[in-house]
Amino acid sequence: MKRVFSGVQPTGTIHLGNYLGAMKRFVDLQDDYESIFCIVDLHALTVPRDPEELRNKTRELALFYLAIGLDPEKTTIFTQSSVSAHSELAWLLQCVAHVGELNRMTQYKEKGQGKDTVTAGLYTYPVLMAADILLYQTEVVPVGEDQKQHLELTRDIAQRFNNRYGEAFTIPEPLINEIGARIMALDEPTKKMSKSAESPNNYIGLLEEPKIINKKIMRAVTDSENEVRFDPENKPGISNLLTIYSLMSETPVSELEQKYQGLGYGAFKKDLAEVVVDRISEIQDRYRRWEKDGGVEDVLRQGAEKVSVIAEETMERVKDLMGLYRV
Length: 327
Ligand code: TYM
Fold this sequence. Notes:
The protein is mainly alpha-helical.
C-alpha cells in the first residue's frame, strides 16, 4: 500500500474549506492507502497562542478527525509534538534548505505583511512541513491549493538531500482536488475561506449551529444576475457555492446548473443550506459521540507510538548519511 500523510493546524475554526479542500479526501483515501494524519501543533506556535486554547484546539481537532469518519483501526492519528523527530529533522533540513527558497514562499509573505515583527518559526515553517512529510517516506500528500508551493519546496529539499548525501527520502506527490482546492470566503468570494479571518461571515465552521449556517449561506455574496452558472472569473460567489454544493452532495456541477436553471439564487441557496446542514449535522453527531464516550487520548497515544517507529528509521539513516558521529 502506498503511504499518505497530511496535517492540519489546531488553530482558529475548522471550516468547510479545510474539510472540502483536504480532510474529506483523507477519509476517501484511508481504505486504499496506509494513512497517517497529523495534528500539527508545532506549526501553530509560529504566532503567539494562549497555551490553554492551543491544548483545547488540539483535542478538538483530534475529535474532528474522528468525526469526519477517519477510522482509528485503519488510520493513524497523532500530534506532531508527541514525536520529537519532527523538530529534529526540521533542523537538519534547515541546513539543506536555502534562504532564497524561503524568501519566495508566498504564505510567509502574506502572513508577515503589516506586522512589526514575525517569529523565525514563521519563516522556517515550510521546512518543518517538509520534515513532517519526509519523515514517513510519504508518497502522497492531500492538501488544498494554498499548500502547493510548500509541497514543491519539500520535493526540492528531498531531492537535494538525496543527491548530496545519498538516498534517504521518498519524493512525495501532492494530491490537490480538481474542484474545491480553494474554497472561497462567503462574504468576499475573491479571497479564500480562512481560519484566521476577522469576520465569522467568511467561513462556515464545522461545529456551527444549523440556524447560523443557514443564515450565512442565505447572506453569501453573489452577483446581480440571478443565474446559477459556474464561471469563477465573472461569478466567483455563485461558482464557489456551486463547488460547495457539488462536493457536499457528490453531484456534478453541470447537473446542478441544469437543476437550477431559471430558479434563481434564493431557491438554490435554500437547498444548498439544507445539504450543508445535513452533512455537517452527521459530523457533529459523531463529534459529540466521541466526546462523550472518550477514547480520543488513546487514539493519539497509540498513533504516536506507531509512527515513532517509522520516524526513528528515517532519523537513523539521515544522521548516518549526514555524518553525525554516533557511538
Ligand atoms: P491548514 O491548517 O491551514 O489547513 C489544513 C488543510 O486545509 C486546506 N485549506 C483549504 N482548502 C481549500 N480551500 C480553502 N479555503 C482552504 N483553507 C485551508 C489546506 O490547504 C490544508 O490542506 N501547513 C499546513 C499544515 C501542514 C501540513 C503538513 C499539510 C503542516 N505539515 C504536512 C500537509 C503535510 C497548514 O497550515 O494547513
